[in-house]
Design goal:
This protein has 248 residues and is α/β, with parallel strands linked by helices. Strands 3-2-1-7-8-9 form a six-stranded parallel β-sheet, with helices on both faces. A three-stranded antiparallel β-sheet has the order 5-4-6.
């Protein structure tokens, strides 16, 4: 059954180029990183209003870093999986124009993706809200459990988009442009519940492009997708890479 679905997906990618990929937490769970919204996800254990809002950070940055510190240690150990590697390969082979990701974990970058748009920021750096000093990931990890700015001593803020903050304007503008120009938008591992990113498939559909979804579980846009595959990102994307010709 998976083989037939992947074959249909490969045919769609060949017919409706260019392909743009939108990824969510589901592509990284296979690297051992918990998702957020499933019954066993991060928000089942932590109230996002207590740990993941900009107001929570400003009120009690030590408490917020207790949450982020645990995640940084996990993310430091995580490795890209077949899903990340397959997308980097497909970009290199000319099949994927760009990857738009909701993830902050750097795994696409480490797998080799170059045309990458990170709409929710990244743990690559943390910044000081007082003096603007930017500190790279390795140095932040060394400063845990409560990383202070090496310049002025204020507690650093991870450069991820917290609830209550606007998405990076340039990133969401680029993501919207890519979605509107996509012949096919391939959604991988996203429940398509968090806006404005969940609206990107609508940009593709409105412009006459096609939608394909690879996800464990249903999404609100399954009925509008040309292909839906309920499966793991690594297995499906590896099979897709094998099914496509070497070059367009």
């Amino acid at each position: 059954m998976l083989g037939m679905s992947v074959e249909r997906l490969a045919e769609l990618v060949v017919a409706r180029r260019p392909c743009v990929v939108l990824t969510g937490a589901g592509i990284s769970t296979e690297s051992g990183i918990p998702d957020f919204r499933s019954p066993t996800g991060v928000w089942a254990q932590y109230d996002p209003m207590e740990y993941a809002t900009i107001d929570a950070f400003l009120e009690d940055p030590v408490k917020v870093w207790d949450f982020y510190g645990k995640r940084l240690a996990l993310l430091d150990d995580a490795q890209p999986n077949d899903g990340h590697r397959s997308l980097a390969e497909l970009e290199d082979r000319g099949w994927v124009r760009a990857v738009v990701t909701q993830n902050i974990d750097r795994l696409h970058e480490r797998a080799g993706s170059r045309a990458l748009v990170e709409v929710h920021g990244s743990i690559r750096t943390s910044s000081c809200l007082a003096c603007g000093t930017v500190v790279p990931f390795a140095e932040v990890v060394a400063l845990l459990p409560v990383p202070a700015c090496p310049s002025c001593g204020r507690i650093l803020k991870p450069d991820v988009v917290m609830f209550g903050e606007l998405l990076p304007e340039a990133a969401i503008e680029r993501a919207t442009q890519l979605a509107a120009a996509a012949g096919v938008l391939l959604v991988v591992g996203s429940s398509l519940e968090v806006y404005p990113v969940a609206g990107l498939p609508l940009e593709t559909l409105a412009a006459g492009g096609s939608l394909a979804i690879v996800n464990r579980g249903s999404t609100p846009l399954d009925a509008r997708a040309s292909v839906t595959i309920d499966g793991g990102a690594g297995e499906v994307l590896r099979a897709l890479a094998d099914a496509l010709p070497e070059r367009p």
